[in-house]
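Task card 7
Instruction: Convert sequence to structure tokens.
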Amino acid sequence: KLKFEDIYGFSDGIFENWKDISNKKLTHSKGEKVLDILYNYTYELIDKTIKKEDLIPKLEISTSEGEYISVGVGSSDKNKISSPKKLAEFLKAIIVKKSEIKFHILGNGKDDENYFEELQKEISGDNLINLIGKINIVESTKDIANSKLFIGFDSGLYNIAYALEKKSIIIVSMKRKQHFFHKSNNLKFIHNELNEKKVEVIEDKKYINEDLNSISLGVFEKAFDNLLKDRS
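Output:
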């Protein structure tokens, strides 16, 4: 009933046929969340008895809190991924707090494998466990479900973490018109606008998004500590 094109296309004027369906503007360029857009569309055009909570996706998978952290390193767009050096900076901060912590690195494909290799150059020891290409999407979902928390980028695995109601830190750029991030107390979005002072940009020829490569360690640590506090 809900097509991707119908939900997302109208706000940017891409799909003019929306005007034939409804004269109402169901989306707005600022402030809307995915759930709001789904609800507005469904209520106005499909079912006026619908409740917003009925549209929250839930995966019927049991969850627990393991002694590892799931980390998604891939995305459909390289501009949504930070330099491995920046991610390594964040992960090393956790290792300082908990030296035996394990990070389950999730992803698929050669680019993600290369990303893992770069992480290994920055993080010595056996904290990193490479699961890239070794487990399928169902197994990756279960890995996230049973992790202490999830860390990743704007990606499919982030959406899975949201649907699992898993505590998550999502590394994002706010300058790419990402108006549709999920809204949940389980999600902490970190971006460089939260920096309290100017941060030197990590230069990377492959992962060139300066917004992502200049997020301060303090912003990450604050999000991490808040998630742990909220969970206790």
